[in-house]
């Protein structure tokens, strides 16, 4: 078995893993990485250069690939077309990527939220375009007792249509958002991790409309929690190099892309691992009536 070296970042989340090739990952190596994944929630593997099918094979160790991601299991996150031309900022796909510059957790707007996400870099811009993550376990621990008691009984709706509308993206139809367009799921603000049992804040840009609060009070509470949560030492930023691969736990982290000059290409490969029905499923509002 290769000697994986797992070095914590120094923030409350994340570790950099070197010394092994994920393409050759065996069961003992996976068990080691799975423990590290549950401890650090974000694992960064520099210089892996996996082929798409190798990335999917790695992701599948952690669970089923989200069905929206099709047969290949790899989705390009890219501002560059196959012919080399670059997307304009008003391109609908670009609008989604620009939206991803706000703190979020993947697929929380779907009935089955994501367990984990894998992202690897192919082409990176000269400046910017990093990814940042924020530790919602540490954020929950840092809350005062009064706030913890207040939010313990609250839930929020999650909607990609809502979060895109907030940044001025006119709804072009449910298909483009990649979800079925049903009622937005309702998710508790505090999520218990199904493996570690640790509580974390479950918020982000898709969250809105807390039942029992006015829309203004809901917005104010969610914005305040987000602002509190996403601060050092609870955040980590990765400056991508081509060939880097990361995996993170969407059940307890938020993440966001950082801006970059859109006249330069940024080409990433994304694979999303579905949550478990027992712990990441949330009914739409109609189902809760
Ligand atoms: Fe994302």
In short:
The protein has 289 residues and is α+β, with helices and mostly antiparallel strands. It has helices at residues 27-40, 52-60, 92-99, 136-142, 145-151, 160-166, 215-229, 277-280, 285-288, and strands at 5-8, 15-18, 42-45, 75-78, 114-123, 131-135, 155-158, 186-188, 190-192, 199-201, 207-208, 235-238, 245-249, 253-257, 267-274. The longest helix has 15 residues, at 215-229.
Structural category is alpha+beta
Q: Into how many domains do the coordinates divide?
A: 1
Largest sheet at a glance?
Answer: 7 strands, mixed
List each distinct ligand once: fe (ii) ion
Mean pLDDT score:
92
CATH class: Alpha Beta
Q: Please, what is the CATH homologous superfamily?
A: Clavaminate synthase-like
Q: Strand order within the widest sheet? A: 1-2-3-13-5-15-4
Number of strands: 15
End-to-end C-alpha gap:
53 Å
The CATH architecture can be named as 4-Layer Sandwich
* Unreliable stretches: 174-178
Q: Which fold name corresponds to the CATH topology?
A: Double-stranded beta-helix
Ordered list of secondary-structure elements with their pairings:
Layout: E1 5-8, E2 15-18, H1 27-40, E3 42-45, H2 52-60, E4 75-78, H3 92-99, E5 114-123, E6 131-135, H4 136-142, H5 145-151, E7 155-158, H6 160-166, E8 186-188, E9 190-192, E10 199-201, E11 207-208, H7 215-229, E12 235-238, E13 245-249, E14 253-257, E15 267-274, H8 277-280, H9 285-288
Parallel strand pairs: 2-3
Antiparallel strand pairs: 1-2, 3-13, 4-15, 5-13, 5-15, 6-12, 6-14, 7-8, 7-11, 9-10
Residues 100, 104, 106, 255 line the site of fe (ii) ion.
